[in-house]
Specification:
The protein has about 280 residues and is of the alpha/beta class. The protein is built from nine helices and 16 strands. A hairpin with a 2-residue loop joins strand 1 and strand 2. About 40% of the residues are buried.
């Protein structure tokens, strides 16, 4: 069992949890993830490691409540426990001294892009970061990202804070204004955002890495639930990723596969909500 030692609400429906997981904290590197199971009958969900503390033996997870399991996880409090935390899994980010790099985080993707930006800056890179959210109330970790970036651009879709518009717009401007200067780009966020970041960067020839968050069950490549097509062939996000070249991902297929289990996910969420309401009624 893994105990929650800190909890914070970063934005509506987005929770930050620090969990005691010494075996993960000892080996965690930027870009890796864990698979969490809340209780014995629960489903297994992948969550990217947003931060870790080797000395304290903890990892930081940022959870957006979008379905039954993430909503249930959001109800846990400090002192509660999680049944299993398997990891670290996946290939870590390739950190090196590239020169000038850009890190793009959209929505909850700001959390996993943070340790990558920090590691890239520590390695001697000039880090230009772009973070975005639908509106100001959904934006978080601006100060953290500023601390690990040489320049930070903040966007909101509705213009309620920072620069109005999508993250692809300032990204394109950076690429146009600094031809040949930017060596590499990392982008993490909703799949549709990563798709259009990749479409934006490809004409400029700047290698672009994305981190995919697909349906996973076992995390060992055996079930095939996380299969994507990248580089012309089948890849498994859990063991071949989670990072891939954004230019090589079949985005239309990925977006289609992300919809496969939506009816079942909605049914599970509604059943959980009804059960939670009955518990509240009996304990009121």
């Amino acid at each position: 069992m893994y105990r929650i030692v800190e909890k914070q609400e970063l934005a509506p429906g987005i929770k930050q949890m620090v969990v005691e997981t010494p075996h993960v904290a000892r080996r965690a590197r930027p870009g890796q993830f864990v698979i969490v199971r809340l209780d014995a009958p629960g489903e297994r969900i992948p969550l990217t490691i947003a931060d870790h503390d080797t000395a304290q033996g903890t990892v930081t997870l940022v959870v957006q409540e979008v379905g039954k399991t993430t909503a249930q996880m959001g109800t846990l409090e400090v002192g509660d426990t999680i049944a299993t935390v398997a990891g670290p899994l996946g290939h870590p980010t390739e950190i090196a001294a590239y020169g000038t790099v850009v890190c793009v985080g959209g929505g909850v993707g700001i959390a996993p892009v943070f340790p990558i930006a920090r590691a890239l800056q520590t390695a001697g890179n000039r880090v230009l970061s772009i973070i975005g959210a639908r509106s100001r109330n959904l934006l978080f970790w601006e100060e953290r990202m500023a601390a690990v970036s040489n320049e930070l651009i903040v966007c909101t879709d509705d213009g309620s804070y920072g620069r109005p518009g999508l993250v692809t717009e300032p990204l394109r401007e950076l690429l146009e204004a600094r031809p040949g200067e930017i060596a590499r780009i990392w982008a993490i966020g909703p799949a549709v955002m990563m798709k259009f970041v990749s479409r934006t960067t490809e004409p400029f020839g700047v290698p672009t890495t994305v981190s995919l968050n697909t349906v996973m069950i076992d995390g060992t490549g055996m079930c095939g639930g996380c299969r994507v097509v990248a580089g012309g062939g089948a890849q498994f996000v859990c063991v071949d990723g989670p990072e891939f070249s954004g230019w090589q991902v079949d985005w239309d297929l990925l977006l289609s596969r992300l919809q496969y289990y939506r009816p079942q996910e909605q049914e599970a969420f509604e059943q959980w909500q009804r059960g939670a309401c009955r518990v509240e009624e009996t304990t009121a």
